[in-house]
Amino acid sequence: xxxxxxxxxxxxxxxxxxxxxxxxxxxxxxxxxxxxxxxxxxxxxxxxxxxxxxxxxxxxxxxxxxxxxxxxxxxxxxxxxxxxxxxxxxxxxxxxxxxxxxxxxxxxxxxxxxxxxxxxxxxxxxxxxxxxxxxxxxxxxxxxxxxxxxxxxxxxxxxxxxxxxxxxxxxxxxxxxxxxxxxxxxxxxxxxxxxxxxxxxxxxxxxxxxxxxxxxxxxxxxxxxxxxxxxxxxxxxxxxxxxxxxxxxxxxxxxxxxxxxxxxxxxxxxxxxxxxxxxxxxxxxxxxxxxxxxxxxxxxxxxxxxxxxxxxxxxxxxxxxxxxxxx
Length: 327
Fold this sequence. Notes:
Layout: E1 2-6, H1 11-22, E2 26-31, E3 46-48, H2 54-63, E4 68-71, H3 78-83, H4 85-106, E5 110-116, H5 139-155, E6 161-167, E7 169-171, H6 174-177, H7 189-197, E8 203-207, E9 219-220, E10 222-224, H8 225-238, E11 244-249, E12 255-256, H9 257-268, E13 273-277, E14 286-287, H10 292-298, H11 307-320
Parallel strand pairs: 1-2, 1-4, 2-3, 4-5, 5-6, 6-11, 7-10, 8-13, 9-14
Antiparallel strand pairs: 9-12
């Protein structure tokens, strides 16, 4: 299948692009390279462009006979979304509307959307199922939910088949440690701790040690990037006979901040300074996924569920690329 990968040069997009190619599909990356890296997509064909460019999108879809679109081209920083909500609505909602409009015009029906557990806000039950109320508490989560709603209404017209995949914490490096996480600035826990282990940060800050968890620190659900991408392939195949798919993607088990720190120490053999501070506002004690629906309906099963495996692949990539992709 000819698949347009919007944001295909980013962390998740580049891993997805590699897996699509290995699975016999023909990916075409569409990226403005504001966050992504050309080195991450290696020799894959790409179009440098922005999702705000409707004419380029329409031309790309038609000329390349695109049959499905996977969309990873979102801004993802929760804190930044609070400071710059209009920027997030422009990029995450308006540009996605532009993409869906071009798809409709070009007759492309299949759409796999990178959504987020942020749509649930502060959930009232753990683990989180797809039936939990969607009440986002920040603009980032609101923009993801807005796109889901847009897709739902468009699907009712018979001109869109979509899957909304609600990620928990994507982590690790794909292709045996070749495709890693290189955000600037970085805000994700595992690469931040690895940076401390490599001596690139002076310390790691732990926000809150008095939560009602076994060691007092927050617990989160980490999913290996390849397990995440594999679920996208299965969802794409299921769209042949489905119009609307919504799945949580997580391991279903959580690891605390202290467990992640200790695992990085164990894998790296390095020690580093840890600073314990007060809780951050809006941080729930535990966020873990119930992914039973994806397992039952897609036949999906995480293959890299152990934290040590996730950290080992991330450590391998960062060790081999201490300054990132350098492009």
